[in-house]
Amino acid sequence: ELSLQSHPALMSYQYRVKSANAQAQHAAIGEKPKINLTLEDAFGTGEHTGFDNAQSTFSISWVLLGGLLDQRVKSAQSKANVLEIERDIQRYDVAAQTAHAFLTVLAYQERLSVAQNAQQHARKILKEIQKRVDAGRSPSADKLQAEVNLERRELEVEDIQHELKSAKKVLASQWGSSSVEFLRVNAALALNEQVINYDTLESGIKNNPQVKYFLTQQRVIDTEITLAREEVKNRWRINTGVRRYEATEDYGLTFGVSLPLGKSTRNRHQISALNAEQARYAADARAKEIQLSTQLYVLYEELQHSYHLNNALTQLILPRLEQALVETQKAYSLGKYSYREWYALQNEVLDTRME
């Protein structure tokens, strides 16, 4: 929620939406009426010398736009709808990025906890081996190996701490912040035992914003085709005004209409191009559905595998390894196992916990 409010990539959309709405309002404004002033039969020769026999006409003219303005508004509004879909796509991307960044921080917190426990365990083992070496019950080589083990554990803790700092920085940037103002995130990595139904997920693909984007673009083309057909129509221009006769000082009304010549098929090439573009968007929508369906299947299979792997690690493998580690430690204390064997099992337990 914080990302959707503050992410830098989303901040510009409010201005883009505002601009699109203004464009739709502007589309409702028709052509300005024209005011005309005409002077005839003046400043000529003979009887038309000077201004005495002149005729002056003051008139106003305008075009009957009919449904053209409404269609321009619909076309502008449909483009604004595309912008809304683009914003939805961006919002989903931001939400996914934030979830990924959040889980990355959480994972490093858990890894750090495991690594710190391993570090404490290595320190405890070194103290025990030191006692055994001092008592002559273990070779000094065991102490050296234990010291190396502790150093490795300390390096691993330091490495994870650096990764955790970077992950926190990435997460904070999702909120439009250049500084990290939190210590840790609170959540659990445990998987829910309820597996999401695949059919439910697949049925939602048609409502995916990436698919809706192409379908909305098709509707935009529909309005542009209608607009192209409307704009090519021959429209009446009305002209009316007042004429003054200087010779008799009389007035008269004038009225006229005009209609452009030409066929209403002048935009046929543009309409053909728009029809082809509309077909392209339909093909893109179908291709996107197939791509998303494939991606969904792959992710779902990975999720199923993750459930299986998680259960195997936590319920079968790790408990046995931990029990084996306890038994190996006892055997080492009795001189039945070497430190190298004990050390190898420690690493396997640590790797399994990390996994």
Explain how this protein is built:
With 355 residues, the chain is α+β, with helices and mostly antiparallel strands. Helices cover 66% and strands 10% of the residues. The protein has 9 helices and 4 strands. It has helices at residues 2-6, 8-11, 13-27, 68-134, 140-173, 198-203, 209-231, 268-333, 339-354, and strands spanning 34-40, 55-63, 237-245, 250-258. A 4-stranded antiparallel beta sheet has the order 1-2-3-4, with no helix packed on it. A hairpin with a 4-residue loop joins strand 3 (237-245) and strand 4 (250-258). The mean pLDDT is 86.
Helix content: 55-70%
Whole-Å distance between the termini? 30 Å
Broad structural category: alpha+beta
Which percent range describes the beta-strand content? Answer: 5-15%
- Give me the number of helical elements: 9
Q: How would you spell out the order of helices and strands?
A: HHHEEHHHHEEHH
Which whole number gives the mean pLDDT? 86
Radius of gyration: 40 Å
Number of strands: 4
Strand order of the largest sheet: 1-2-3-4
The major sheet is characterized as:
4 strands, antiparallel
Question: Quick one: overall form?
Answer: rod-shaped
Low-confidence stretches: none
